[in-house]
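Reader question, answered in our methods column.
A reader sent in the components of a multi-part assembly and asked whether the whole thing could be modeled at once rather than chain by chain. We filled in our standard form and ran it. Here is what they sent:
COMPLEX SIZE: three components
ENTRIES:
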Amino acid sequence: MPKDGGIGASTKRREDVRFLTGKGRYTDDINLQNQTYAWFVRSDIAHGTIQNIDTSDAESMDGVVKIFTSKDFEAAGGIPCGWQVTDRFGQPMQEPKHPILAEGKVRHVGDPIAVVVAETLEQARDAAEAIDIDIDELEPVLDMKAAIQDGATKVHDDLTSNLCYDWGFVEENREAVDEAIKNAHHVTTLELVNNRLCANPMEPRVAVADYSQANDEYTLYTTSQNPHVIRLLMGAFVLSIPEHKLRVVAPDVGGGFGSKIYHYAEEAFVTHASKIVGRPVKWTSTRSEAFISDAHGRDHVTKIELAMDENHKFTAVRTDTYANMGAYLSTFAPSIPTWLHGTLMAGNYTTPLVYVNVKAVFTNTVPVDAYRGAGRPEATFQLERVVDKAAREIGMDPAELRRLNFIKPDQFPYDTPVAVTYDTGNYHATLDKGLEMVDYANFDARVAESKARGKLRGLGLAHFIEACGIAPSNLVGQLGARAGLYESATVRVNATGSISVMTGSHSHGQGHETSFAQVVAEMIGIDASQVDIVHGDTSKTPMGMGTYGSRSIAVGGSAMVRATEKIINKAKKIAAHLMEASEGDIELKDGQFTVAGTDKSVAWGDVTLAAYVPHNYPLEEIEPGLEETAFYDPSNFTYPSGAYICEVEVDPDTGKVDVLGFIAADDFGNVINPMIVEGQVHGGVAQGIGQAMLENTVFDENGQLLSGSFMDYAMPRASDMPMFDVDHSCQTPCTHNPLGVKGCGEAGAIGSPPAVVNAVIDALQRGGYDVDHIDMPVSPSRVWEAMNK
Amino acid sequence: MHNFEFVKPSTVEEAVAALQSDEAQPMSGGQTLLPTMKQRLAAPEKLVSLTGIASMQGVSAVGGVLTIGGATTHATVATEAAAHYPGLAGLAAHIGDPAVRNRGTIGGSLANNDPAACYPSAALGSGATIVTNAREIAADDYFQGMFTTALEEGEIVTGVRFPIPQASNYQKFEQPASRFALTGVFVAKYADGVRVAVTGASEEGVFRWTEAEAALSANFSPDAIEGLSVSADGMIGDLHGTPAYRAHLIKVLTKRAVAAAS
Amino acid sequence: MSKISMTVNGKSVSGEVEGRTLLVEFLREDLKLTGTHVGCDTSQCGACTVHVDGKQVKSCTMFAAEADGAEVKTIEGEANADGSLSVVQQAFQDYHGLQCGFCTPGMVMAATALLGKNPKPTELEIREHLEGNICRCTGYHNIVKAIMAASGQDVPAVAAE
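And here is the structure of the entire assembly that came back:
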């Protein structure tokens, strides 16, 4: 077994070679014979009634193949929502139609109205400018609290109001929580905004569709994190195409971060249009277009109250949130502020009573859905900010207050008051590790050193809990999910022993081609180079739910383990036959089957060859061949946790914050490839620092997006980031999946924003400023204004 | 973007002639114009590239004056002006990013006069002379508000002459997304007085902070402007900073520029 | 349409372009060199970074006609003559300096341009040089390490084994 190929090895990524040499194959690199180009005409008005669309001049322009409006989609369904939330009165959420192209009304800047399909992209754009659209402007609905007042202008005329749902969790705890807060020794209250973000994977979305009339078959190439989900949603609910006639391919995908989970109108458009025009149709988003057509993330307005007794033990948490849905329900939007947020509000603490209220509101803005972390960053941010504020109010070390209230290592499995059971964890260990890494004991000396240079130094701590691999399917079905949340794998062993694994997970930067191969190689004891990972093509892989929610190794990896176990079991039968031994005595180690207590052995390759050339083979007992599929449905979430510590320096003259250092001490359970895991944390932390310090999605009073390009949406650059110090040595393996893994994709983005803001507040308070909160992003101007209010 | 005829003359005269037709536009490095054209906010019918004109290239220092060809890139200024006018070279070295500096030119920046661009503050702060194909324009007369200059239609910035100061420095506080100047201050100390030019802050574009100039001319030290303040009236307010914040930054950056001037 | 000729990755090429054809469009569509990517439309992300006459430029912010007669190098021309990864490419793999790979060609071209001028850059110089190259995956940590390593400087091991 080569040291660098199995579980726990920092194996270099095999996918890198094609990316480093310019040989990756992203969707925009795909050009089909006789292809046409689509350009979307989008609303530049946030809310209005479409009076007329005049395409007559544009129709006759050079290169125009066809111009589409909503009339061309009368037979199609709306873009479906994949999760139905039930409100606290037992009623289903309000669910408006989300048409492919605007029908009668436009509801956000960027809402698509018409599409030109032309011979070239520039011809499509030229013709698009000649389309005359007459829109009567309506008052835009933008402020969430005003939007749900009686008499407010409605985003959707056919709904009773702009309230999608009023959700309470756990509703039975409501009165007890109110009572506990009323009677508390101390209550800390914090009102905050979790800023709206744009995911901005570096690859903009692209969709290329090709309809074959000869076979009545469609192929869609799309920038997706989950091609099977797109096939199911688009085929079954939008275009009525049966799965066997629809192939969806997500080739190399240049980052997703959640924004490429959803089924988007552009995918349905090109697929349908390809049949109508009888030629392939390609759409490539510009970055400016991405800002107004990719689902956004976050956008919560929250008030949280934390109650404690005289011993500083937390007694209750109550939190009220307004969650912006935007103009339509994106695929998983309703689940984010509810089941991915409310269930995490116990955090790492033994707080016995928790009540979460969420009002989801429609506004005339771009739809909001999951972005890296999805609900869990919103939960962690408010909880870890309010705990920090509480510690400052009572004059206690923030680390000590956390430690006092942590769930203790011997309390696992731990039933929280918000319906979930944490299987394992050791929060004291990760906190201690983080404090050791940051040299907490000598922080005061560093403060003095900064002060000597005229700077204010601060240290911020956050300790997060996350729930990954959302499951099991029967439970999430009760919670409103309209999909299963299993994952699949087919392990195909070839005659000479090499293996192709078809996984339902999708890699768009996570390195599955390397790390998944390490797992199978380790299980069988062959070199990882003998294992190929195939993903991203519905014609090749079994039905899978794709990659999001840090689920790939915990759910997809488990499916692969189960399928590989089936392979090994069958191979042992073959080996037993070949060695004329009892199946129960067969052992597999380092790619050799042996008979216990003897020197008999047969190599992996001999067994696989026998499976496909079954001359000497127990045909009466087992079938030839060596190929197995498994679907894995987890029995619980996994619960990564960790201590994140940020050290900052504030320039009091300008309010500019420099992140001097960032520490992440995570518990991910077992780790397959430490190099990849650490890379995931780096990227997540950078996005969290981006949210905390730089990124903000802002609409003006007319619903125009002010931060609609990289000129105004501040993406983190290399010079904004420190070197990170990350550790994953505290490991409490998951008890309910075969690899003992927990997932690492989102942790960085979840734990870091409160650490950054806590550090800035710490710096200001140490510097003598009476500032207890600044909303994100803590930009220089906001910090300066807080210092000079 | 809309299509256009592309021409690349090799002399100023040819360029001026090419610009005589309607809807013709000169382009130097194109680092601002080209993205604007992609957004279809600019749509020339003829684009006259100035990058092939040898006489508009280069940096030379003679008799206390630094002359820079209009089509000289920021990267070239950053290296070739360093020995003669380090304040200006330092400014050029931090415009945009390395790729932008390899294409963007001083003439293009001054002709565009973006209110958040760096070069206008150096030209105004140095009392530079803008040389065109037709005339010479003093910087004090050249900048006429946001994206507005004294240039006539079809007039090209062929070069800029900077009197070399005794000491100078540019302080840029970056807008976090675009990395243009949220506020930038250029300070230059000459034998006959100090000039202070501010970019990024005012709705009127680059301007001179004359009170600071007077105070610094008397005492070239950060303390000299301690008692001064800039009014927030007329300052830019946007996502990244209020008028009051920009006004505050002007003073902070001016002090830092004076302290750093060499 | 006008005819342009240039040398791309050491080979002479020519083609017919409109005035508005961008260099990146000429590379991707005419020459089928799809390693150069487009990630924005405001000249900030740097995914389209190539070298023109030895200098790092954004090929989305340069007309193809401006490169007439020039020597252009793209990511496809970065590997060694025998097809093995160049020192910079190998360092990106060794130090996990890429994840989704989309910004990577631009990052590599920016890195090689930096090392051409500054063979032993400091961490700060590397970060400043990457001002015009945005990565959303890595947090830049391992990109910086990869460039340090490619310049022959000591960097800590990639991850604890």
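What stands out: The mean pLDDT of chain A is 97. Chain A has three domains: 33-138+205-284, 296-394+401-470+636-787, 486-632.
Send us your own complexes using the same form.
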